[in-house]
Amino acid sequence: LGRRRSKVPIGPGTLADDTPIPLMANLTAAAEAPRARELGAEGVGLLRTELLFLDAETAPSIAEQVEHYRGIFEEFPGRRVIVRTLDAGADKPLAFLPARSDEPNPALGARGLRAFREDNTILRNQLRALAIAADATSAEVRVMAPMVADAAETAGFVLLARELGLRTAGVMAEVPSAALLAAQILGIADFISIGTNDLTQYTLAADRQLGALADYQDPWHPAVLRLIRMIGDAGGQSGKPVGVCGEAAADPLLAVVLVGLGVTSLSMTPEALADVRTELRQHTLEHARLLATRALAASTPAEARQVMLDG
Ligand code: PEP
Ligand code: MG
């Protein structure tokens, strides 16, 4: 199967054998929604919510949050919108969270879900606001937590989300422990979404913000692919969805490998949707699986990429 670059009309993500692979948008604000829809996003696979909180001196009230989220949900009537709860930490400090500037290693600090271990008021209020906003629109709203390490943390988050009125709750797999424990996690969560940016950073132990180590930040690395395979296998066994919402999903050739590893939907910057849609339509699921198996056997990111270039 070649990779002819024919112009593919806007439409749902599918493989050459018609297997659906929903293609979703990563968003941060309602203003980005029209462009995402224009480019054919089938929903939102990652709504980052930090923006609403970053400039605030005090935590936004539940009412303020409801208004904000509702504005975004209304842009996607009847569509799936996956909201990530606040991913704050020393890298994205919030004025109203206790200062974390004393953390020697922010990437390994109290970020993501870990920021709420002592006091989860902000998380509770956010989930409540999301539940109210979800009930007020026809969007199919799901929530997921960042930086989840294991099944116990998954259970804590999923139960809290349900208690506060959200029907569908999942977690991000962006810490290697979550990939290793994906089967246990999917025994509890409704879905998993792989954050390849952080998963790569933590697998290779290279700070993603450090330019000198930028070449380690490569999701084609066979070690990262092997962790993704574990998550994909757990998804296949549980029958639950496995998404990717990191930058890897926006690389058309890597997108094929991800599908071959068991990923069932992809979320990306809307500008990347067309190229990924085009590439996926060149491959059957069987072919994607074959390519993924070959990429897994590579010993360097370049070798893994070469598998796709060779077709
Ligand atoms: C990721 O880590 O891949 C991800 C999607 O989250 P962020 O880039 O916001 O950390
Ligand atoms: Mg992340």
Describe the structure.
- With 311 residues, the chain is of the alpha/beta class.
- An 8-stranded parallel beta barrel has the order 1-2-3-4-5-6-7-8, surrounded by 5 helices.
- The mean pLDDT is 94.
- The chain has 13 helices and 8 strands.
- It has helices at 33-38, 50-54, 62-73, 121-135, 151-163, 176-180, 182-186, 196-203, 222-238, 252-260, 273-280, 285-296, 301-310, and strands at residues 23-27, 43-47, 80-84, 140-145, 169-173, 192-194, 242-244, 265-268.
- The longest helix is centred in the last third of the chain and has 17 residues, at 222-238.
- It is globular.
- The structure holds phosphoenolpyruvate (PEP) and magnesium ion (MG).
- Residues 46, 48, 87, 174, 195-198, 245-246 line the site of phosphoenolpyruvate.
Set down the secondary structure blueprint:
Blueprint: E1 23-27, H1 33-38, E2 43-47, H2 50-54, H3 62-73, E3 80-84, H4 121-135, E4 140-145, H5 151-163, E5 169-173, H6 176-180, H7 182-186, E6 192-194, H8 196-203, H9 222-238, E7 242-244, H10 252-260, E8 265-268, H11 273-280, H12 285-296, H13 301-310
Parallel strand pairs: 1-2, 1-8, 2-3, 3-4, 4-5, 5-6, 6-7, 7-8
Bound molecules: phosphoenolpyruvate (PEP) and magnesium ion.
Keywords:
binds magnesium ion; binds phosphoenolpyruvate; alpha/beta; 311 residues; 13 helices; 40% helix; globular
